[in-house]
Amino acid sequence: MEESISGFKIRGDWGDVVEHGERITQALREHSVDDPGRGGEAHLASAFEEWDEWRPKAHETLEADVSEKTADQASVEEGKGEKAGKGPDEDIKTAGEKLSESYEQLEEDDPDAAVDNWKESIDYVARAADSAGRKALRRVEDTVYQNVMTQLAPYYFDNELVSANIQQSTRNGDAGEQFVFEVNVNDDELKEKVSDRLAEYDDEIDRWHVEVEKDTDAAEAIEGAEPPPEPEPEDNSRSTTN
């Protein structure tokens, strides 16, 4: 692993990439970044979840899974209407109702209330247009990003906690596909703690047990069989010194 001001970088095959992501994730977890009750920094727990979801997994591929997750993460954020759980059709309907109320209030000689409802009607129309535009843009973004942009730039992730990028390097003969994966912890104090923990992993651990997705379909198909319980997150990437 290479460490610099821009982050922790690894060069290697897909297994190396997955292990690098797991080590950093485990180091963050051991500093309670995933704990919503962490004093004064509870907001980092959701950022940790986003990172944990995006990081490359053993059962994934760069071109399919990481590409899709990167496009999702990079998509246009939700507008006011979407955050309120309302679609464009609902907002247009509400706008029509407000406009009808406005006309009724004019007939009842209540111009102030009529103006208020008229303004609300305009706001709902604008919100509907905003929601529709964002959805259309996301569809374009997703197609353009997955099919064009990832051919020109690395796959990337960025939030308040972590910034990361991964790109395919070159085929190295019998070694197969090679990748470059760089991860940066955005808080300098936390980054120093993660760096220390990663160094301890190198000193203490001979072999890192990469987390592998479990196939429970076969067990569930057998009558009366229960799928094995999922281990706690802390145990997923544990390692040995033997």
UniProtKB/TrEMBL annotation:
Q: Which InterPro entries match?
A: DUF5828 (IPR043868)
**Which residue windows does the record flag with biased composition (Basic and acidic residues)?**
55-101
What Pfam families does its record include?
DUF5828
Q: Segment Disordered: which positions? A: 55-111, 212-242
* Record protein name field: Uncharacterized protein
